[in-house]
Please model this.
Amino acid sequence: VDPSNIRRFLFEAVQLIGLFAIVTPLPLLFHSYWENVGDDYQETIGVVAIGTTVTLFGYMAASFLAATLVPRLVSLLLKPGRTYTLYGFRYWLQTVAEFSSNSRVLGLLAGDSSAIVHYMRAIGWNLNKVVQTGSNFGSNQQHENPLLCEIGTETMVSDGLFMINMHKSASAFRLEPTRIGERNYLGNNIYYPPDGRTGDNVLLGTKVMIPIDGPLRENVGLLGSPAFEIPRMVNRDKELIAGVDEDDRRRRIPHKNRHNLVTILLFVATQWVMLFVTLAIWDRALNYYT
Model:
């Protein structure tokens, strides 16, 4: 029997055991607790409101702590450049680090605003010298290991960037640092590998396949899959850039920050209302059931 198949079976079996032994019983435990709260609607709706607030803000705080701490703790045992067994203990650590540091809610909360660069740095990305544009990244950047991601100065990312930090075979994996050069502009939904052959001042079109061989591409645009070269910039782009000078950009950023603060508060309020309505319906259903 191939040992790698045994490891894969055990790896997935442990996940199933965790699902049915830990995750599945949680609603049943909650139901047992809720039976003792009371049937009065006026009484329970207040508890639901408090529970919604604690759950929402507790989840965001726990997600932030996990995203910032777990990868750094895992890095004590996982080193880039070393080969590890697939579906072993260290592979499990890698999956935990990847899962805990890719928070969709926190990405939506900070994305497309000045706050996103601070969040990305907090979880471990190396952004070098940041030139704040108010929208350096979108709302959905992902990675396999945040401590191995590096972005060059003045590089902007639209949305959907996935930094690949791992080489994987049928039986082993190895972590590798992934770097994107300076003054790049990335379109949507790009998977960037650790051995990507692009340098500085490159336009990467939406869903482009990053070349991993051949000469280092610089001062060009890349589009398509497989990628072909296009101009880095056309006259229209030059006119747009010339229309906003550095001082004007700096004056506009505080206005954008105030607008983003309003949208962040609206986003949190929307999440609170959705969670509150869900728990309120659950409360009524449990009361009728019991």
